[in-house]
Amino acid sequence: WNEVFNKGKMPMKLLFIPFRLTRALLREALCSLSSHSLFLDSPLSPEGVTQAKELATFMSDTANAGTSPAEQKYLRIVRNQDVAVFASSNLRRAIETIGIGLQSTIRD
């Protein structure tokens, strides 16, 4: 979805949508031979992987300069210094984000 409709800046964004959509439909047709789907349960994009890695870096940084006391409280919880439960959509990209972004917390 993001690769087709949310990439680029206006007006070029609108100009390339038909091309990106055609490419995505062709890829989806190829995926129909397997259990994968780009539209129904798409994997984390390269940009998403980068963002999840940035989250992992942020989560492992104990200083986190510029965070408020309330944010520090939630960071302690998420870092498993208190009890934490992680809930996620069952879509691959959501699960991959948690796996990459919170790997240090989950591993401990």
H and E order:
HHHHHH
Structural class: mainly alpha
How many strands?
A: 0
Mean pLDDT: 78
Report the total helices: 6
- What sort of overall outline do the alpha carbons produce when their principal axes are compared? elongated
As a whole number of angstroms, the C-alpha radius of gyration is 18 Å
Low-confidence stretches: none
Q: How helical, in percent, are the residues?
A: 55-70%
Strand percentage? under 5%
Major beta sheet summary: none
- Cα-to-Cα separation, first versus last residue: 34 Å
Architecture overview:
- This protein is mainly alpha-helical.
- It has helices at 2-5, 12-31, 46-60, 69-78, 92-101, 103-107.
- The protein has six helices and no strands.
- The protein is elongated.
Give a brief description.
This protein has helices at 2-5, 12-31, 46-60, 69-78, 92-101, 103-107.
